[in-house]
Amino acid sequence: MPLLVFAYIAFIGLGLPDPLPGTLWPVLRPDYGQPAAALGALLLAVSAGTMAASILAGRAIATLGTGGVLAGSVALTAMAALGAATAPPWPALVALALLSGLGAGAVDAAMNLFTSARFAPRHLNWLHACWGVGATLSPALATGLLAFGASWQAVYLTVGLMLAALALAFALTRARWGGPEKADGPRLSAVSVLRNRMARRQILAFFVYCGVEAGTGQWLATVLVETRGADPAMAGAATALFWAALTLGRVGLGFVVDRMGPDRLLRRAVLVAALASVGFAFAPPGFDLLAVGLLALALAPLYPTLMARTPARLGAAAAIHAVGFQVAAATLGAGLLPAILGLAPIALVPLLLAALAAALALLVRRIAA
């Protein structure tokens, strides 16, 4: 199987475990007697593991090679899912969430590093769209199994077996996963990469971008219901529209990124995103939903295209560490910035998102000048 095809399948598989904690929490929580807020402990454990593994991914790739990191990290996510399928005690379930995050962070960094060095930017957009496909299929799979009377443990078992098969496939093809870590030139330390101004700008861009993306996705329904008089069903549909447009935007813009040029696309898309966020903040009801859809389409190419340009912008030696730092910053931004937005009055959230989008526009336009 060509590695590009394998990469597409792998990105679908990598999206499978991410939604499971939230999707299964309503049926899982009664078995543990935990309050609703205890879901935060699982999500925090996943985020902590993802950040730690992303930061250390460069050293792991340099030591084990891309194939070794891919096989080992997917095996960790499989072990975490299979462990959860045994319905372990609550502290062990939290520890397994941490293990899942460690695997996810390492494989995310390794796959992004490999694909950004080997494939054109259009493939990065399509690959990240495939992650969205996996993240969409996972709740559907869980819902289907539960509807047929299966337990939540059976859902974890099914996903765990899928991930185990993917880990085995990575192990069998380990020798084929060459990577930028073997590029000519001196090997750079992680600290030296952080001294690079452009690397710091890119890391900050991923932090802010994921804050805008996750902040919009997490707070959209609440803003519509509590400040604009929308009913919950319509607000939920608007949130689904946002995530669907984000995935479809990566598919569609993947067809134009190489023709337009990645940096030109970045400059235009981030400007449209800033304008759309302002539109969401100030547009009257009805038009604000159009602004949300436009915002999702404009945000869609930013993450994969910035990632795709990392080896060319920083050099292959620096990219080994920079990609991991970018994934860690993205994880932190997606978790921290929406939480900070929640401290503000709900009516101010769209304005704060617009301010973040404007800051992102200034930052990305400097990067892609």
Short description:
With 369 residues, the chain is mainly alpha-helical. It contains 16 helices and no strands.
3D architecture notes:
There is one protein chain. With 369 residues, this protein is mainly α. It folds into 2 domains: 3-182, MFS general substrate transporter like domains (Growth Hormone, Chain: A, Up-down Bundle), CATH 1.20.1250; 190-367, Growth Hormone, Chain: A (Up-down Bundle). The mean pLDDT is 89. The longest helix has 46 residues, at 39-84. The chain has 16 helices and no strands. Helices cover 82% and strands 0% of the residues.
Features of the shown structure:
single chain; 369 residues; mainly alpha; Growth Hormone, Chain: A; 2 domains; 82% helix; globular; MFS transporter; membrane; MFS_trans_sf; transmembrane
Strand content: under 5%
CA radius of gyration: 20 Å
CATH architecture of the largest domain: Up-down Bundle
> Given the C-alpha coordinates, what overall shape results?
globular
